[in-house]
């Protein structure tokens, strides 16, 4: 009912026109109302967390394959899927990530591969799941576990011949910068 009254008001308002003659110039003082503007819904405001960035650089402690200091580059390959490649002091890593929300600055679960040490300094390689918390801006921390898939020459020297548990705790903390 209100819609019909609104259309009638629009038609009557757009039909009203007043012609005046001012300073030797004919002027049309018409009143128009665009009914289409009134009917179109306004787009919803974009959530502050929703971003268009699809890539992120992560820097921190035990990142980049578990190096003392490391960095990862992550890029989204789908709506929620991401690929992560990293390197650190004496380490490298790789991860396949599934974000809980469809943007890069959201928390995610991941399957990670950590390779710690190279050549004669290789200690071990691990693979396993990890959960990574990301704050709205800049801070991130991850925790998970990794199964030892290979042992290097440094393993015996570091652990003195002791057999370490086949599953190790994985964790990291640092900063992320989406772009």
Give a written overview of the molecule:
- The chain has two domains: 2-39, no CATH class; 55-178.
- 15% of the residues lie in helices and 47% in strands.
- It contains three helices and ten strands.
- The strands form two sheets. The protein has an eight-stranded antiparallel β-barrel.
- A hairpin with a 4-residue loop joins strand 4 and strand 5 (81-88).
- The two termini are 50 Å apart.
For the CA atoms, what is the radius of gyration? Answer: 30 Å
State the end-to-end CA separation: 50 Å
Count of distinct strands? 10
List low-pLDDT spans.
1-15
Q: What class would the helix/strand composition place it in?
A: mainly beta
Strand and helix layout:
Layout: H1 2-15, E1 19-22, E2 25-28, H2 35-39, E3 55-61, E4 69-76, E5 81-88, E6 91-99, E7 108-116, E8 124-134, E9 139-151, H3 153-159, E10 167-178
Antiparallel strand pairs: 1-2, 3-4, 3-10, 4-5, 5-6, 6-7, 7-8, 8-9, 9-10
Summarize the structure.
The chain is mainly β and 179 residues long.
